[in-house]
Amino acid sequence: MSTTTSSSAQAPSKALAEITARIEARSRSHRQAYLNRMRHSRDTFERREKLSCGNFAHGIAACSTEEKNTLVMANAANVGIVTAYNDMLSAHQPYEHYPELVRQAARGMGCTAQVAGGVPAMCDGVTQGQAGMDLSLLSRDIIAMTTAIALSHNMFDSVVCLGICDKIVPGLFIGSLAFGYLPTVFLPAGPMPSGIPNSEKGRIRQLYAEGQVGRDELLKAEMGSYHSAGTCTFYGTANTNQMMMEFMGLQLPGGSFVNPGTPLRRALTTLGVEQAIRNSDKGSSYRPMMDIVGVESIVNAMVGLLATGGSTNHTIHLVAMAQAAGVLIDWQDFSDLSKIIPLMARVYPNGDADVNHFHAAGGVVFMIRELLEHGLLHDKVDTMLGEGLYDHYTKEPFLENDGSIRWEPGSRETGDKDILKTVAEPFQKEGGLELLKGNLGNSIIKVSAVADKHRYVRAPARVFHSQHEAVDAYTAGKLNQDVVVVLNYQGPKACGMPELHKLTPPLSSLQSKGFAVALVTDGRMSGASGKVPAAIHVSPEALDGGPISLVRDGDIIEVDSLNGKLLLEVDEAELERRRAEIVVPDLSANEWGLGRELFAPMRAAMSKAESGASFFTQTWTGLTEQTVNIDGSAAVPGYGTEPGKKAGTQS
Length: 651
Description:
This protein is an alpha/beta fold.
């Protein structure tokens, strides 16, 4: 790819620079500790030549003679493939044939590739409203650990990650950062072609919730929407993942939303593998993941999330992902960035278009250049293609007749102003994510699809402990009023923090009948959330003694996204009385069945949503420059292993 520098790229705006500096100052000690560990790991573990002959023989036993000869020479890169393939997920089914494609690309460079290991990949669409959804968020950290297991063989010079969906990319990302001294490239598979319009699917769902159509018609609509291999086409967490990897320079530019099975998709996959080899220390330019993922690239991912109206799940995932690189971000950072980042895209559920339409209108490449030229992204960052976001990520790929890729500057004009707009004339001046604060705790609300007239709701509470209870109450006609539905005991420790999309059709129906409706929950309602205001991820959660556990039917709650408030209109004396008498509901139904009993220790150790809802938070936040020496050893007694001392444990 050519690297012609454009004079159009501007320095970051003052506000962006100030927020970034704040994050950098907060993270300095943790970031340095991470880099110390990675540099020490690189010097200690990186070379597969350090394996014993027996170790090495095991690692290449199944290779062909040609591959063995290449690996024995030790001057060619060996690419580790970490794959989330399974053929039940439409998004991941195309990965079935990727390992051979990766191996072919590596052989073309005189190198080798091996499947290092597989990671679990579950589908929120299949488990939505089902007990299996309770494992969804927890799977992210399991994926991180299984990524580490895959790479722990120390056989690899670079890594390619095959993953698309909700928890899978964040898990692969976190796990790969533990091997941040290795170059890492993410290879997407692309979205399925467009099916029936998402707005039509939503209409049928609402009619079904109201009892106006039957299951046959609902199933027909769902199968018309989710109809082939590839990622679901609405702009939920999976497609937000792809956007963020591109904004961070870990995927090829313009490649996130190229459909599966196309010649261009294949060519991009081959090029991604070739670049992973070039970036290895056996290639032409060593670019490890630890140098690409830093404060500024994390901020760029946050900007992309806000400008596109992406999934609220990333107010949890991105916090955990950043921690793994020694970068500490919080919800206030998201909220402050949202005030300066315009909403430039309308993709379902924030509009009628799907990601294929968004891509055709100019997509990620258009947005990156627009934001850079207005000083709303950091340009001087490292990427998988080299330094400079403008030089590399404002171009889009075109396929030549010989199968190679030609890079051309992306269009300066949006292809459809109903889908994609400029910074100067956005859909909204702000990014659409808000931090709500008040005596119920902190929460996130996504307002990019919420009409202005619905952004303030003050109404009596109806309290439920499961989304099924709430749906049953709606079906029985008990919610036909102005209402704030409070769904508590849905946090990470209570039940794994499942998605609550089963509530979307009934709440939308109530709103369409003219009622003032809002949702308040310590659970999740992610990228598929829409027109009903939802104060989600309430932190601290009910099981941790959060004030959301004190709400009673009939209490007045104010959900004010215009002024950033989440208030329970009950005086403090009454709340103290309730706190003394609180009885935790029976949560045993959340604790077993479909394997949930195996995850009890993990649920108990999860951090609060505001801290990333992660099994690892205590580990990452405990690692500072004061605890980790430059050689990677422990600097504080009792933490890790000090030279010459017995291993200790973290307090």
